[in-house]
Amino acid sequence: MKKANSILGLRKSVISKLLILLSLFLLQCKDGTEKDFSMVMKNTSSGSTKITGYVHNRDFYPNTKEVIIDVSHVSGETRVTQIKTPINDDGTFYFEIYLASPQDVTMHPHLDFLYLLPGDSLHIELDFKKLRQYAQFSGGKSAEINNDFYKYFSATGYRTTKHGYMGVGTNYEMNYTWTDVREKLDEERKKYRNRRQEFLRQNKVCDEVVFLTEAMIELDYYKALVETVLRRENHFGKETMDKEMLMNELNEVVVKYFNTYLYSDVHFKFIKSYIPAAKLTPTRSSADLDFVEWAKEVAKTDDIKDFMLVTQAGLALLQKDLDNFEKYSMHVNNEYLINRLTQEYRTTMSNMRNPENISSYILGTSKDFTGNMSLDHENLLAQTITPNSGKVQIINICAAWCAPCRIVLEQLGMLMKEYSGKDVGVSFICISGDTESTRALYREKGIDDKTVHFATSDEYVFLDTTFSPMAFPYGILVNRKGVIVDYGSHVRPANMLREKIDLLLEQDNLLK
Questions:
Q1: Mean pLDDT of the 191-205 span
Q2: What is the domain extent for residue 415?
Q3: Would you call the peptide bond into 282 cis, given omega within 30 degrees of 0 as the criterion?
Q4: Chain centre distance of CA 471
Q5: Is residue 438 part of a domain?
């Protein structure tokens, strides 16, 4: 615990500023012309953002009881939703979210993108008969920005979470040359560029919207480009572009879109691609350097170095790895990123001290999904946990077609023998269907297939949406009280799992 808190001691002079917390010096709205954002000023405002709302045609989906906000994460990953509020019978709802800095969230399934400012107020009107087709915003500066974003997304068809780029490349990798694939990606980018330019020509929008809509297109494009390169080389052994040229292009993008305090989730997701792209260039990485030193050597700018370290520190927080969090975070100097990281640190520590908070959310009433249909069965996880009540539990979720799952199943089989006779239970959920071949997979790894629950399609939807995005194999760690204390693809043997199990045999949380 002492070591876990040392980041606040090590950076006392900086953290004191975080109590005031960074925001933007919000610029006046203007016409749709481009401008240089390198001189965007900072201000010191922070606090709770109050969100009120009203749902028209509330009775159209009477089983939809809540509005749920997914908060973007500094790791570039998505964590389990922690912010939700009931929809009252009269269609009203209310949120109050503390923000360390401006950031984007999603309100699934209604809004793919919602930009929030600390200390601001926002009123949102939705219509259950017109999902994704109707939204109105009023209130403070956040309303002005979000009205512009909503008009932009509606006019261009662009979506920050689901758009054309991610479908490009995968359809052409086996039969097309790299030149053909790149041309297809370029065509997709050009389409969105042209739509954006036409929108800006016809509409006066805020400066934040001018800058971030351009950044979204370019950063998403290069994220898709890098991921296509990795897929072609790693899975298909196909040719791709020159690595030095790739890094040169990425660094040009870095200089243009990371020189301001206007950031959104696409910046963090871009860094998740920037890191493996840099590792593809042998001359720019060294086995003799740890990640901190390597990041300092590879990063084109200090801000990119800080983004690289923050994504790793954020990933460490998701994995409840406080030692590595401290290792990475203590080298970050960008105030915006320190603010975001400090916010994530406080949230993680609160959940680690009181895991009942997030556990009760996961094990509670099933959430409503995209189709606004409530699942009519009991919570699958609660059913899985109950038989091993009083034990430390590992729940493994895997698919028969997943190669890493086979390795983890074998490791879990050995772990079960290692903890035989102790208060440790291991349960399995298979999402590949109940067939002889899937049962044989478990038997081959020394696991009695009678102990495996073969999930139905509805149960898979529940799991995939609750832990979205789910990457197989996926693990859930439960304490003796039946409380979920950790979850993610990192919950597996050879990744601190034994250390966490031993700790939970002595206490009910993962704080040392």
A1: 96
A2: 367-504
A3: no
A4: 12
A5: yes
CATH number at residue 489: 3.40.30.10
List the structure tokens of 46: 């922070």
Which amino acid is it at 405? Answer: C
CA distances to 45, 59, 111, 316 from 70, rounded to whole Å, are 23, 24, 10, 20
Query: For residues 361 and 82, is the Cβ–Cβ distance under 8 A?
Result: yes
**Do 510 and 503 touch, CB atoms closer than 8 A?**
yes
The answer on pLDDT for 330 being more than 90 is yes
Q: What distance in Å separates the CA atoms of residue 379 and residue 398, rounded to the nearest whole number?
A: 18
Predicted pLDDT at 116: 93
Residues 257, 138 share a domain = no
Q: What angle do CA 145, 150, 154 make, to 5 degrees?
A: 150
d(CA 345, CA 120): 23
- Here the tokens at position 455 are 């999930």
Q: How far apart are CA 321 and CA 440, in angstroms?
A: 35
> Is the same domain home to 122 and 213?
no
* Same domain assignment for residues 207 and 324: yes
Residue 456 token pair:
């139905």
Structure confidence by residue, pLDDT tens digits, 398-430: 998 888 999 999 999 999 999 999 999 999 999
Q: Which DSSP string corresponds to 249-273?
A: HHHHHHHHHSSSS---HHHHHHHHH
CB neighbour class for 151 (10 Å; exposed up to 12, middle 13-18, buried from 19): middle
Residue 108 near residue 38, CB atoms below 8 Å: no
Token readout for 411 is: 């490791």
Q: What is the SS3 string spanning 383-407?
A: HHHHHHCCCEEEEEEECCCCHHHHH
Look-up: residue for tokens 């808190």?
5
Site of tokens 């860094």: 271
Domain count, the chain: 3
Peptide bond into 109 cis (omega under 30): yes
